[in-house]
TrEMBL record:
GO molecular-function terms, A-Z: transmembrane transporter activity
Function description: Part of the ABC transporter complex LsrABCD involved in autoinducer 2 (AI-2) import. Probably responsible for the translocation of the substrate across the membrane.
Assembly and oligomerization: The complex is composed of two ATP-binding proteins (LsrA), two transmembrane proteins (LsrC and LsrD) and a solute-binding protein (LsrB).
UniProt organism field: Gynuella sunshinyii YC6258
Pfam families cross-referenced by the UniProt entry: BPD_transp_2
Protein name: Autoinducer 2 import system permease protein LsrC
Length: 331
């Protein structure tokens, strides 16, 4: 079976599962099926979607970014403290600062992986601790609360345009850009070439290390964007913001069919993986399921998704090896 067919089958299956899950919860709690509730669930999942798309680029290049949530916490704390001290700074400038800082943090990861050849999981585990420590050193453990933030800082992601909050529109814009990037631009296709077969990519003129560096920078830039969105959305900034969220980000990618072996993944699958987790996170509390069961169910789904990915990739390997054997037998 061709890899593309497997991806499409995964996307269709995920779409059906999400639809069935929504209808099942709607039978128990009809209010969940209202347009407002569903749009609210999408808005709640916007940050996860944005981060998962950045993580997808990193994973398809055979790397991983475990510092993404710490990046969110650090950039969020920086812009929240700036807003508290200098409320006259316009939100677009703070957004630009957050994305620039996030990209710089991602650049550190990318340089260590590219130039020093340190495994990405080791680099990002280290920078995850460094960035978390930096948040504490910067804030001295103090919180920045809603009453310290300006009204414009808090209201920007909540402003509604055509029935959707700005945060949802930002997520939709990122999805569209990533779809075009990975489907029509060579810049985007290079990520898959570098991760799918690094040796072949090298002989076609692709610098695999440089491509991995770019993936980390983009992931960091999106984490910086989400740093502002997170602290303004919840109107609070503290050391443990998004603590552990990196696991949900990786899970969204894996559930969406992004291969941890690199080279395979789609924007649609990644978005569906994030939406699946978003629906679970929003639906289970509505029907009164314990938060501990939510964690257990999410973990079980991740294990099933990894097993499914592993079996699909193993099946692809058998097909490749079988062809020359058959040809030799016929000869």
């Amino acid at each position: 079976m061709k890899p593309l067919s497997l991806i499409r089958r995964r996307e269709s299956f995920l779409g059906v599962v999400i639809l069935v899950l929504i209808l099942a919860v709607g039978l128990i709690t009809p209010e969940f099926l209202s347009a407002g509730s569903l749009l609210g669930a999408f808005n709640d999942t916007s940050i996860l979607i944005i981060l998962a798309l950045g993580q997808m680029l990193v994973i398809v290049t055979r790397c991983i970014d475990l510092s993404v949530a710490a990046n969110v916490a650090l950039t969020g704390m920086v812009v929240a403290m700036l807003n508290a001290s200098y409320p006259f700074i316009a939100v677009p400038w703070l957004l630009l600062l957050a994305m620039t800082l996030g990209a710089l943090l991602g650049m550190i990861n990318g340089l260590l992986v590219w130039r020093l050849g340190v495994p990405a999981i080791v680099v990002t585990l280290g920078t995850m601790s460094i960035y978390r420590g930096a948040v504490f050193l910067l804030s001295h453990g103090a919180w920045v609360n809603a009453h310290q933030m300006s009204a414009g800082f808090i209201e920007f992601p909540r402003t509604t345009i055509a029935w959707l909050p700005v945060m949802s529109w930002i997520a939709l814009t990122v999805v569209l850009v990533f779809f075009l990037l990975t489907r029509y631009w060579r810049f985007g296709r290079d990520f898959f070439s570098a991760g799918g077969n690094p040796t072949a990519a090298f002989y076609t003129g692709i610098d695999v290390g440089w491509v991995q560096f770019r993936a980390f920078v983009i992931s960091g830039l999106l984490a910086g964007l989400c740093g502002y969105l997170w602290v303004s959305r919840y109107a609070v900034a503290y050391v443990d913001v998004a603590n552990g969220f990196e696991l949900q980000v990786v899970a969204a990618c894996v559930i969406g069919g992004v291969s941890i072996m690199g080279g395979i993944g789609t924007v649609v699958g990644c978005v569906l993986g994030a939406l699946f987790l978003g629906v679970i996170n929003n639906a289970l509390p509505v029907i009164g399921v314990s938060p501990f069961w939510q964690m257990a169910i999410s973990g079980a789904v991740i294990i099933v998704a990894v097993i499914a990915n592993s079996r699909a990739e193993r099946r692809k390997g058998r097909v490749i090896l079988r062809t020359p054997t058959l040809n030799m037998a016929r000869g």
